[in-house]
Amino acid sequence: MKNCDIEEIYKRYGYITRYNDGVLVCEYKQGRYFGVDIIRNGNSEKTEKIQNDYQKLNFATNIQQYASIEEVEEELFKSFFQLSAFRINLNKRYDLFVKKQMIGLPSSARYSYINSDYSYSNYDSEGIMTFNQEVENLSVVEQVTELLNTTHEPVFVIIEAAAGYGKTCTAYEIIKRMEENNAEILPFYIELSRNREARIFKHILQNEIDEQFQNVVKSDVVLHQIRQGKIPVIIDGFDELLSKDLSASTSQLRDIESMMSTIVNLLEGKAKIVITSRKTAIFSGEEFYEWIRNTNKRYNVARFSITEPKIENWLDSNRLEILNNCNFPISNVANPVLLSYIRNINIDELRELVQNSKNIVDKYFRFLLNREQIRQELLFDETMQLRIFKKLVRIMTEFDIKADNKSFIKEILKDYNKSIFNDYIRNYPKLPKPTHDELADILSNHALLDRKQHDNIGFINEFILGILIGRNLIENKYQEHYPTSFTDIITQDFAYLAISAFKVQPQERRDALWDVLYNNPFPYDNKFKFHRDFYLKNKFIDKYSEILIEEISFTDMVFIDEGLFKNSIISNCKFFNCIFSRLSFDNSGFVNCKFYDCHWTDNSSQRKNDMYIIGCESNNYFDSLLYGGMEQPETLIVEELILRKFIRSASKVNSTKRLSSIRESLRSLDIRIQDIENAITSLKKKAYIVINGDNCFIQREGITYFNRTYNHEQ
Description:
By secondary structure, the protein is an alpha/beta fold.
């Protein structure tokens, strides 16, 4: 261990180093604090003399003797970052988050993290998939935490889920588990929100470091410890920095390249970076993995995709029995907010609820708003409270924001409710009467709202936000206030929130929202139109082209209209008792899907040459009717052609190719669609490739197999 190495570490923390009679001395002079570390070199007399000299100058002195450079790093890290104090703050932050999750629930409610099914894929620094798994009924938190605690290389973890499916809950649980399981690290949590401020991630990161580590260490020390793995970073809501919808095209990777570059620049040493995001095409597309290969950093990527919650994970058998016995539309509650409410209300109240009302959403809102009247002595009735917050949502939609500083939210509340506030004050029964500012302050602390970071205010969850967006639409409020532009001010992201929230509304409200979204010229993509029809009508109204449908369950659905899907892929979906026509799929088909008690309306001779089923399973030979046998000579020939799409030479491998481009290129060689299906399915079963949507990943086993069997360059 060299003194120059010790000096470098001390200088990083702001020390001035010098030698006194051959002894390394590290002085720290910040503000009113003067301290010195004297590095013992074996000569006790010299060391003690130097210590006495500094004590006479009123320095706080320490004599240090280190066994290794790692010990130097560890000592200064613990000393400057004050781990115990930071951990107390982390626990307080977690407790505050849990407390917020209990808002809107009975006082007897207890918080617990609910597991959901998820998929997990791992990629090396060359973008090659090294692991792929579908996981049921286990905790994604446990797997992510274990990965972060046991991996000694830099790793970039991506956790994706649809709106309202637990991204933030997962982020907080990861922080909690890491803090409990590893006393030597300090998790660094960053919450992102869409507001009117500039969304430059590099600046956001710097601001968060300055705020969370204020007056303790310089930012370059924090960045160094991030790279050392001592400060794992959890960035919650990565997609909130994106002002446009990014679910339709992976070409938009360049729009976030500067943000990604900031993250990748940290991925050195033992760095651990975790981001949560709604599902986008960005992190699954060919361009993303090409970008990984082209960066000059070597790190692994772990991608977790959380699926829709299963009701059985939330509700015990007694509550499920109550819902089923009353023929309650149980599919209408597959939302974490409502499931949490049903999970925690008194079981007698649940019986009364399902017997007297099919609209659990209204019951939930009534519970929230009535309790708020008591909690804040608020004299606005339910209707007026909703009216006020629907106005707030309209303005936030116009600005394309989900949160903003409290003063701005209060100004909106005051400016758009002057007459309502005047009536309230005039009829207020007590003295002194509240002012407009006091009323705005009370409403900014409402249970429907939540205090975010940096004193920002936003709606407590995206379910509430989506319900109010949808209510504004079906009550023609957007149309009334923006008669010529309302279809332009509602972004596709906000419209998705409305659809997601209205999935659990009664059919008449779903119909009303569908009417607005269908009969007005909203500039949304084809995938949105599919979700609009499926979730609001539970049937297909439009024709759908060039879309990717993933991880949806279809029950009692009919796919029989000719040309229903064109140039589209249905991937990782489940079908129960559905009816299909081969003529419905024009250059479209199924990948990695499961079919239960499904049937064709037409026979194989009517099959169009460009309809396909790849890597699917069924319980009644539904899928195998299209295959015509496996491992035929043609299959092996096509296998080689497919693998050659990935492997250009012994040293050049493309980790990812689009499944659609593979099929198109093979069909141009006049290869039968059946042989293409057989070959792809065979390669998948052998674990040589993995298929995810329209992306096909070659695995290490596939590269080894190809080089051994077909690569004659070796």
